[in-house]
Specification:
6-stranded mixed β-sheet, 24% strand, alpha/beta, 8 helices, single chain, Pyruvate-ferredoxin Oxidoreductase, domain 3
């Protein structure tokens, strides 16, 4: 057991970030950690920001992660990763899907989607682990499995938690009819 660790899951409504946080919370509880999960909805209907805080350790007192405290930011979309960059610890990591989902100002023509987001986050000092999770999710059988591809990748940052424990968490949190697809997505995310 160790100090409290902080993971932020950021995405757009409808992308499955709530399942990802539920799976992560379940996994960490079964590993014996004290866990606090807090969901902060912007406009969580499709298209709005959704942020989930997952904090775990020996004893966690608050579910909220402040600026500069996140060990890992798991992002379903590049712009969401950039939006929450200030929450990352100096030695933290951003794990992001390279997919671009245009926010409303871009859709309406009031703004352009920012260019070079990955490079700009790296220039700001962040360690960025970016991968095309959408392509991997589609390879697994469904574009909706981006969340589990990201969990697969996140699992590589926890060498102390055996892969079988992650699979058990998927089995506990995912409906049986989607189990094989999600196990495949997890394996593809793990690499």
């Amino acid at each position: 057991m160790a100090d409290t660790k902080n993971i932020m899951i950021v995405g757009v409504g409808g992308q499955g970030s709530l399942l990802a946080s539920k799976l992560l919370g379940y996994l960490l509880l079964t590993e014996g950690y004290d866990v606090k999960v807090s969901e902060v909805h912007g406009m969580s209907q499709r298209g709005g920001s959704v942020v989930t805080y997952v904090r775990f350790g020996d004893k966690v007192y608050s579910p909220i992660i402040d600026r500069g405290q996140a060990d890992v930011i798991v992002s379903f979309e590049k712009l969401e990763a950039a939006r929450y960059l200030e929450y990352l610890k100096p030695e933290g990591t951003i794990l992001t899907n390279t997919q671009e989902m245009d926010p409303m100002p871009v859709i309406t023509g009031a703004a352009k989607y920012p260019e070079r987001l990955i490079e700009r986050m790296q220039e700001a000092g962040a360690k960025v682990d970016a991968m095309d999770c959408l392509a991997l999710a589609e390879e697994a059988g469904s574009a909706k499995a981006v969340n589990i591809v990201l969990m697969g990748r996140l699992s590589t940052y926890f060498p102390e938690i055996p892969e079988v424990k992650w699979i058990e968490a998927i089995e506990a949190c995912v409906p049986p009819k989607f189990l094989e697809l999600n196990k495949k997505a997890f394996a593809l995310g793990r690499g």
